[in-house]
Design goal:
single chain; about 110 residues; mainly alpha; Cytochrome Bc1 Complex, Chain D, domain 2; 5 helices; about 0% strand; binds heme C
């Protein structure tokens, strides 16, 4: 039986997209936009931000903590936290925000 090439190509690219999607690297720039929208009322999320809530750690200070990993922050953000509103962020959003916080350590 001859292989139907166009169908084969479509099937392979669909499969590849399905595999790559969830593994795609988190997008720190997207995370920055999310942080500025959802987190900046309390946290200082960027170096050009002048005011935040004094009792709240800045994202840069969180990034510089000894045990910091993007995975731990993403995980933290998936659970509602007593002092923080439950923002019901998606997995992709928590990964993006964690990736953004990670670059602040540098
Ligand atoms: C209503 C204010 C408020 C908002 C909005 C807020 N936070 Fe927080 N966040 C806090 C406070 C207060 C703490 C310190 C909690 C503590 O010390 O227990 C904190 C702590 C944290 C921590 C450190 C947790 C740790 O390990 O000590 C992270 C990470 C964090 N917030 C991320 C975020 C992100 C990301 C957003 C936006 C999606 C956000 N926060 C929005 C108030 C807020």
């Amino acid at each position: 039986m001859p292989i139907n090439l166009p169908t084969f190509v479509v099937a392979v690219s669909v499969a590849a997209t399905a595999c790559v999607g969830p593994v795609l690297a988190a997008d720190a720039r997207q995370g920055e936009a999310l942080a500025k929208r959802w987190c900046a009322t309390c946290h200082i999320v960027a170096s050009d931000q002048t005011s935040g809530n004094a009792a709240t750690p800045t994202f840069a200070s969180i990034a510089k903590r000894p045990g910091f990993t993007p995975a731990a922050v993403a995980n933290f953000l998936r659970d509602p936290h007593p002092k923080m509103p439950d923002m019901a962020l998606s997995r992709a959003e928590t990964d993006d925000i964690a990736a953004y916080i990670a670059i602040l350590a540098k």
